[in-house]
Amino acid sequence: MSDFTSNFWSIYVAAITVVAIVACLLLLWFSGKAKAMTAHDNTTGHVWDGDLREMNNPLPRWWVWLFVITLVFAAVYLAMYPGLGSYPGALTEKWSQKGQYEKEVAKGNAEVAPLYAKFIAMKPEDVSKDPQAMAIGERLFMNNCSQCHGSDARGSKGFPNLTDGDWLHGGAPDKIKETLVKGRVGQMPPMAAAVGTGDDVKNVANYVLSLSGSPHDSVRANLGKSKFGVCAACHGMDGKGNQALGAPNLTDDIWLHGYGENAIIAMVNNGKVNQMPAQGEKLTEAQIHVLTSYVWGLSNNAVSK
Questions:
Q1: Residue 188 annotated in ligand binding
Q2: CA distance readout (Å), 249 to 43, 73, 166
Q3: Neighbours of 248 (CB within 10 A)
Q4: Closest C-alpha among 169, 128, 151, 181 to residue 295
Q5: What is the DSSP string of 237-289?
Q6: Which of 32, 57, 92, 301 gives the lowest tally of CB atoms within 10 Å of its CB?
Q7: 113 to each of 106, 180, 197, 206, 225, how far by Cα in Å?
Q8: Is 145 one of the annotated binding-site residues?
Q9: Are 234 and 245 in contact (CB under 8 A)?
Q10: Which of 273, 257, 99 is nearest to 184 (CA)?
Q11: How far apart are CA 277 and CA 149, in angstroms?
């Protein structure tokens, strides 16, 4: 790990770069000073194809100066801009890649601010019914959310479906906004040791399946009911979950990380950590507001139709 936190590689890269530029200058200088042994006709004595003789003429002046200008440009560039390891460059305060990016983002946000102005004062429920706002929200979703939740927002294994009204942390607009701004980290700890033996885990898995009316072994489910008390701390005795903790409802037959006995056993044995990255520093408040309205509308407006 020290290879990535020490200054060794930064110094190494900077030294190699400087040595390479100096070596090119020295090579040019020595090649101009060196005297080759030539015959009286200014040839070196090397002959190819019978009559093709190597002359000892100097390099063209335009080529030499072009080479020098290139090296001088390289030295000036490396002094002004980042390029020598971790050296930031003399113009860092005036220009940097990050600064240029932030400047362009700020410019773009300023240009579209009037477009968002009329939406920021509206309730999310009202914004979700505005066609123009939803067109913007769809584009925001495609650029920032569809990579995980899919272009249709129906998610996939490990990524929640945003169109079905089933919410781990609550589906109210303020909760959706909170998720977008701060992100979420969901954790199911390994519970095999607390549940008991391998048969106990299997019994609990069948009891969990029984809660949603899914196919299960009723004998094992009855045996697993008492052991479910370990899980009830988060999911509740009735298995309906706890949105304050992000604990899933086990009675609705919606399975985020896989369905069936084997999937539940694996979850109990191994646990699971899931993360929704925060968008608060990436998107403006107005963009978050429109995106919140769009996501809320995916399930609520569909239900109302």
A1: yes
A2: 90, 64, 9
A3: 24
A4: 128
A5: TTS--BTTTTBPPSSS---SS--SHHHHHHHHHH-EEEEE---TTTS-HHHHH
A6: 57
A7: 10, 20, 59, 53, 56
A8: yes
A9: yes
A10: 273
A11: 13
Is residue 263 within 8 Å of 205, Cβ to Cβ? no
The Cα–Cα gap between 290 and 120 comes to 8
Residue 109's SS3 state is helix
Structure tokens at 276: 């929704």
Collapsing DSSP to helix, strand or coil, 184 comes out as strand
Q: Is 234 annotated as a binding residue?
A: yes
* Spatial distance between the Cα atoms of 85 and 234, rounded to a whole number of angstroms: 50
Judge whether 24 is annotated as a binding position: no
Q: Do the annotations mark residue 40 as ligand-binding?
A: no
For 185, residues 6+ apart whose C-beta sits below 8 A from its C-beta are 273, 274, 275, 276
